[in-house]
Every structure is written in structure tokens, then in C-alpha cells.
Design brief:
92% of the residues lie in helices and 0% in strands. By secondary structure, it is mainly α. The protein has 2 domains: 46 residues, no CATH class; 132 residues. α1 crosses α2. The longest helix has 130 residues. The mean pLDDT is 90. InterPro entries: CCDC90-like.
Length: 180
């Protein structure tokens, strides 16, 4: 393994600060072992570039599979939504047709009822007109009867008056002859 610092310079520095050469080399070799152990621990948690590329490829293939699944799911859901939409459109058209049929039926019933009511009103007016005409005829008949009766009474009165006048004249002429 490569060591990323100058071990000889560290040994010299330790010797300058009162360590013996043997002590300095032991300290430096201990430091190198500690660093190696730490690097081993770090390298265990790390991946190599090749492993990283393999993991990246696996992740990308999983993402590609998920994308394909999502596209398939999206298409199937879209087609399901389209078919559901078509069903709803058909149901809406059926409801619209039923509604139009009901409206037509109600209109026809209303026209029939209106025409029937008009016929009843016309019949009622006709009955009233007939009753009024009959009443007018009865009144005219009664008036004519009354006029006839009045004329008859008038003639009777004229006869009685003429009779009375002739009777009075006869009596007056009788008295006149008697006095003469």
C-alpha cells in the first residue's frame, strides 16, 4: 500500500524531539498499521468503480423496468379510463334519450289534456248556447203567447165595450122614444 506522507521525515522529527531511532520507527510503523486498518475499514464500506458501475447499471435497468411497467400501467389505465368514459357516454346518451322520451310523452299528455279541456269548454259553451237559444225561444214563445193573449183580451174588451156602447145606445134610444 501507498502511504500518503513521508515516514522518514516523521522518524527524523521524532528523533529531534527526544525519541530514539528505534522508538521513532516503532511509532511510525504503528501509525502506518493504524492507518492501514482504518483504510481497510473505510474500503470495506466503499465500493470500487467497477462495483459502482455494476450497481449503477442494475439500478438503471430497474428504473427502465419500472418505466416500462409505468408506461404499460399508464396505457392500460388510460385504455380503462377511455372504456369507462365510453360507457359513461353511452349511459349518458341512454339517459338523454329516456329524458327526451319522457319530455315528449309529457308534452303529448299535456297537449291531449289541453285539447280535451278545450273540447270540454267548447261542449260547455255549445250547451250554454243551446240552453240560451232554448231560453230565448221559450221567452219569445211566451212573449208571443202573451201578445196573442193580450190581443185576444183586447178584442174581447173591444167586443164588451162595443156591446156596452150599443146596449147603452139602445137603452138611450129606448128612453128617447119613450119620451117623445
Amino acid at each position: 500500500r501507498k502511504v500518503f506522507f513521508d515516514t522518514h521525515a516523521l522518524v527524523c522529527l521524532l528523533e529531534e524531539n527526544g525519541f530514539t531511532t528505534q522508538q521513532s520507527e516503532v511509532i511510525v510503523s504503528a501509525l502506518v498499521k493504524i492507518m492501514d486498518t482504518n483504510l481497510d475499514m473505510i474500503y470495506k464500506d466503499m465500493v470500487t468503480k467497477v462495483q459502482q458501475e455494476i450497481a449503477l447499471q442494475q439500478v438503471m435497468s430497474h428504473i427502465g423496468g419500472v418505466k416500462k411497467d409505468m408506461i404499460i400501467l399508464e396505457k392500460s389505465e388510460f385504455s380503462a379510463l377511455c372504456s369507462e368514459n365510453e360507457k359513461i357516454k353511452l349511459e349518458l346518451q341512454q339517459i338523454k334519450k329516456q329524458l327526451m322520451d319522457e319530455i315528449t310523452k309529457v308534452r303529448a299528455d299535456n297537449k291531449l289534456s289541453l285539447n280535451l279541456e278545450k273540447s270540454r269548454v267548447k261542449e260547455l259553451h255549445a250547451q250554454q248556447d243551446r240552453a240560451l237559444t232554448q231560453t230565448d225561444r221559450k221567452i219569445d214563445t211566451e212573449v208571443a203567447d202573451l201578445k196573442t193573449m193580450l190581443e185576444t183580451h183586447k178584442l174581447d174588451n173591444i167586443k164588451y165595450l162595443a156591446g156596452s156602447v150599443f146596449t147603452c145606445l139602445t137603452v138611450a134610444l129606448g128612453f128617447y122614444r119613450l119620451w117623445r
